[in-house]
Amino acid sequence: MTTVDFAMRLEGYMISDVDGVITNYAQGIVDLKKKLAELIHSKLDTTAGYHIPKIIYTNFDH
Q1: Per-residue 3-state assignment (H helix, E strand, C coil) for 20-33
Q2: How many degrees, rounded to 5, is the angle at CA 40 between CA 36 and CA 41?
Q3: What is the CB neighbour count within 10 angstroms for residue 44?
Q4: For residues 59 and 62, what is the distance between their CA atoms, to the nearest angstrom?
Q5: Is 13 helix (H, G, I), strand (E, B) or coil?
Q6: DSSP letter at 50?
Q7: pLDDT in tens, 5-54
Q8: Is the pTM of this model over 0.90?
Q9: Under 8 Å CB-to-CB from 45, ≥6 apart: which residues?
Q10: Domain segments of the chain: what residues?
Q11: Using an 8 Å Cβ cutoff, are 37 and 55 in contact?
């Protein structure tokens, strides 16, 4: 690879903001997990009739 090719690829990488995309994806997953937990809590509150302070799921990430 020539120096010019390397510089062009590096510039493309820097302009594309790949780090921002990765961060946004990770934050999106965290937000979805939070919304899911809120939905489950709200359904349990209305169905069971009492508040459940904390739910622990085994292997939730998988």
Answers
A1: HHHHHHHHHHHHHH
A2: 115
A3: 14
A4: 5
A5: helix
A6: S
A7: 888 888 887 777 666 666 677 788 888 888 988 888 788 777 666 666 77
A8: no
A9: 51, 52
A10: 3-48
A11: yes
